[in-house]
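Hi U.,

Before I forget, here's the chain from the pilot set. I'm dumping it here mostly so it's searchable later in email.
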Amino acid sequence: MTMITTRDGTQLYVKDWGPKTGRPVIMMHGWPLTSDTWDDFAVVAANAGFRAISYDRRGFGRSEQPWDGYEYDTLADDLADVIEATGAQDAALFGFSMGGGEVARYMSRHGGKGVSKAALIASVVPYMAQTPDNPDGVPQSVFDEMTAGMKEDRAHFFHGFLKSFYGVGVFTGSVSEAVLDWSFQQTMMAGLRPTLACAKAFSSTDFRPDLPSFKVPTLIIHGTGDQTVPIETSGRAAAAAIPGATLIEYDGAPHGLFASNKQQLTDDLMAFLRS
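Structure:
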């Protein structure tokens, strides 16, 4: 375990596994979880000779919980600071769900410095909000209901949210009750302020202007049964807008692919790393 200090003084919890001489892959987790969701893949990548770096987003997991800094410009700067602190070069950036936003904003705000590949997994990119020029987006009323639920009884809200996240009762062969418990523990490690602020960030940030900055091979993976981040306004839209991107669709799969489709996701990401 390593703690690194960002440019605004926030301490971030970083895992740096595998040989330090290996080609780096840096993994960003989703809302409202932690870097632990990347552990299964990180072990496989590290054992294959890659340097697997993951970290808890500010406000989540074991990282500090400042009051500010939950918009994507700061989150992309945090990623830049992790890259600088670890000395990672020629790195692959993998962003799951909200973490895809960090990848996109890093590519534009920091010019994709030191990045050789990118992957967006069940990602919120390019734009989740329903607007006149994004009619397939999610209505604001959905996010308003989420915010109200978290403010009223956050623990109760996430018990229900995680079932949808993993497609419990919908996706055949989803996840165990133990995975739901493990995920719930992670959600409650986050502060209420960062949980609410990051929900606002991922639901309202328009990443469409960031997409032309993707100048590296890009893999997009999304489940067609994702009820948390619908594929039409995210995976398919991103694949259409990022030049040369490859889209892999998991038929009927939910949002939490790292658990619901663990082996399939690991195989596809490892093949991409080795390509």
